[in-house]
Design a protein that fits this description.
about 140 residues; alpha+beta; four-stranded mixed sheet; 4 strands; about 15% strand
């Protein structure tokens, strides 16, 4: 059985999402009917929407997509799960999420359960460190 490989510090810079900024921007956003559908059923938006500019970096694409699917209408765990899913779809393996407060153990457990292994999720005060396996990494047991 093979083990997933995770990016180490030398394999790329870690960037940080400020979760509070996303929630603030989401509150100020003028919602259309389609935006509301994407907010309630985010997988629809993840599959059908594409980043507007192909010259955007993966991080910029992820930030734009996150603004489309994060919602103040759902709990923080759901938003964080959506963000991790988007990052994985964009091929990002390392990023941090700056939260306005530290999550409780039950919240972290729910995120781990929903995303599933081999997610590496570490909390340092109000910062979540997310590590996803490297896509298509050839590993051996």
């Amino acid at each position: 059985m093979s083990k997933p490989q995770f990016a180490n510090a030398e394999q790329g810079e870690t960037f940080c999402f400020d979760y509070t900024d996303y929630l603030s921007a989401s509150c100020k956003k003028r919602w259309s009917f389609i935006d509301a559908i994407y907010g309630v059923i985010p997988i629809f938006g993840m599959v059908t929407r594409k980043a507007a500019a192909s010259s955007q970096t993966d991080q910029e694409k992820l930030k734009a997509l996150a603004l489309q699917v994060l919602s103040t209408q759902v709990n923080d765990e759901t938003n964080i799960i959506r963000l991790i899913t988007l990052a994985g779809q964009q091929g990002l393996t390392r990023f941090d999420i700056q939260l306005p407060y530290a999550l409780e153990g039950e919240q972290l457990a729910q995120i781990r359960q929903e995303v599933g292994p081999p997610l590496q999720l570490t909390q340092q005060d109000e910062r979540l460190l997310i590590r996803l396996p490297i896509p298509n990494a050839a590993t051996s047991a």
